[in-house]
Design goal:
Length: 214
């Protein structure tokens, strides 16, 4: 009596398929870019409004925006695990800033910071939490771009500020917004971004993942 050979068992994958980043952006990813870029930009705009009160509050607004937008970007990373997704997000946000009159290089810097974030996420296969935290911190470095004229020593930037906000505002801004201060501040923004991403991931685990939204 003959018996048929037992087929070999299918090997169990070592990593969940959902954790493997897709190689190319698809239509759903592009829709996500549009939605999350809009949410990110609205939060960025609202938190920047406090900067009209005084120059130090302008810097505080960047930090608040970094804290609040952490959840938005971490959700975007989770729902859009594609290479170049962060690059495109940075390009859209930076482009919107340029259209509103910010320094033209903002779109370039934002796209490059997005690309750096993409490479970090890819190194962690979109599954490593530390890579996600660092990717967000690096991405937020783009927020220095609208202030690059200060770093480059442009007086036209402060002349434009004086026309909008007045002489006293300009004088205080020149004292606070020195190239050294801005570079040091941007390092702080990146570190705050890493911490904010860690907190955002805890919020997502508690409220979104358990609810089955991811």
């Amino acid at each position: 009596m003959s018996t048929s050979p037992t087929p070999p068992a299918t090997p169990t994958p070592t990593r969940p398929q959902a954790e493997r980043p897709a190689s190319a952006l698809n239509a759903r990813a592009l829709v996500n870019v549009g939605i999350f870029a809009a949410i990110y930009f609205v939060i960025l705009f609202l938190t920047a409004l406090i900067g009209f009160i005084s120059p130090p509050l302008h810097l505080a607004g960047i930090l608040v925006g970094t804290l609040v937008n952490a959840t938005v970007v971490i959700l975007f990373m989770a729902r859009t695990p594609h290479m170049f997704a962060m690059t495109l997000l940075g390009t859209v946000v930076g482009g919107a800033m340029v259209l509103l009159g910010q320094f033209w290089a903002t779109v370039v810097v934002a796209a490059l910071c997005g690309l750096a974030a993409d490479l970090i996420l890819r190194a962690g296969r979109h599954a490593s939490r530390p890579h996600v935290w660092v990717a967000y911190g690096v991405f937020q470095f783009w927020t220095i771009a609208p202030l690059l004229p200060v770093v480059l020593g442009s007086t036209a930037f402060f002349e434009r500020i004086e026309k909008r906000q007045g002489h006293d505002y300009r004088m205080l801004m020149e004292q606070v917004f020195t190239p050294t201060n801005l570079i040091l501040f941007q390092v702080v923004v990146c570190l705050v971004g890493i911490g904010a991403a860690w907190m955002a991931m805890r919020v997502i685990d508690r409220h979104f993942a358990r609810a089955g939204l991811l």
